[in-house]
Amino acid sequence: ALISLRQLLDHAAEHGYGVPAFNINSMEQLLAIMHAARRTDAPVIVQASRGARAYAGDLMLRRMVEAAVEMFPEIPVCLHQDHGNSPATCLSAIQHGFTSVMMDGSLEEDAKTPAAYDYNVAVTRNVVELAHAVGVSVEGELGCLGSLESGQGETEDGHGAEGRLERSQLLTDPDEAAAFVAATKVDALAVAIGTSHGAYKFSRRPTGDILAMDVVKAIHAKLPNTHLVMHGSSSVPQELQDIFNEAGGEMPQTWGVPVEEIREGIRFGVRKVNIDTDCRIAMAGQIRKVAREKRGEFDPRNFMKPAMAALEKLCAERFEQFGTAGHA
Ligand code: G3H
Ligand code: 13P
Ligand code: NA
Ligand code: ZN
């Protein structure tokens, strides 16, 4: 059945597990995720970005997810709007059957000005009122996703005197988080702890100075009953980088968020873990491999089948690692 994020994350909190939220744009991605969920008996969060909605079309996405729910009747599925940039985006998602929306009021955030915080509270509160009236959940975000190594927030550039944000300007402030949740009544809160979107998060295996798991713990101490969300949580496994590069790809050496750190977060209130980049690299590596090894191949299914198998394997691993397995 289709369920809300709140229903799923309340269950996850009660039983101490986390749920990966995988981005989808296509039938192949959705099927691979669902097969992994069936294999591990895990509930599912699939999320669509604005780009995904434009790529597949709202009606196609909705009908695809409805079909998945019918094909896999034993698996609870939450359909979530990833990084909604406005109330209008969130409302059109709700009209198209999404059971959860992210109102990302931090996208507009200009470092940490009082006006930016007030805007974020107002716009998030507005979406919560509308969404809750129809049983849809809301994720908010406070803080600025972005690298502590470069000091660049994702929506910023050329900030501050040296064009660099301080650690305290990028990371979510625990006291502010408590005030934000009280003011907005969000169902889940995305926190900024030094992760960023995409493949190039860290230039070395991250340690506490660049991946601030201590901030997760401090926020959880203030908000023990709030479901926390980690964005930018691909692990960018070495194995997937190697497959991609051995098949002729050119991906410079990079480091993501180690699964062990995510598991530590799950012990401290993290319930939703956003993963897109790992899924992309898993699929793209196999597509490259077929293109390189079978130069006469032109049936797209013979590119997509190994890509789907690699994605299914990745998703099943995360369901096991985050403790989602067995909870469908
Ligand atoms: O937040 C970023 C997600 O990885 C979605 O990316 O906007 O390219 O679909 P996208
Ligand atoms: P990654 O780029 O690390 O997969 O993060 C995805 C994400 O946060 C989507 O909202
Ligand atoms: Na999201
Ligand atoms: Zn994100």
UniProtKB/TrEMBL annotation:
UniProt keyword list: Calvin cycle, Glycolysis, Lyase, Metal-binding, Zinc
Cofactor entry: Zn(2+)
Gene3D superfamilies per the UniProt record, alphabetical: Aldolase class I
Gene Ontology molecular function terms on file: fructose-bisphosphate aldolase activity
Pathway noted in the entry: Carbohydrate degradation; glycolysis; D-glyceraldehyde 3-phosphate and glycerone phosphate from D-glucose: step 4/4; Carbohydrate biosynthesis; Calvin cycle
Record-listed E.C. numbers: 4.1.2.13
Family: Belongs to the class II fructose-bisphosphate aldolase family.
Name of the protein: Fructose-1,6-bisphosphate aldolase
Naturally occurring in which organism (per UniProt): Benzoatithermus flavus
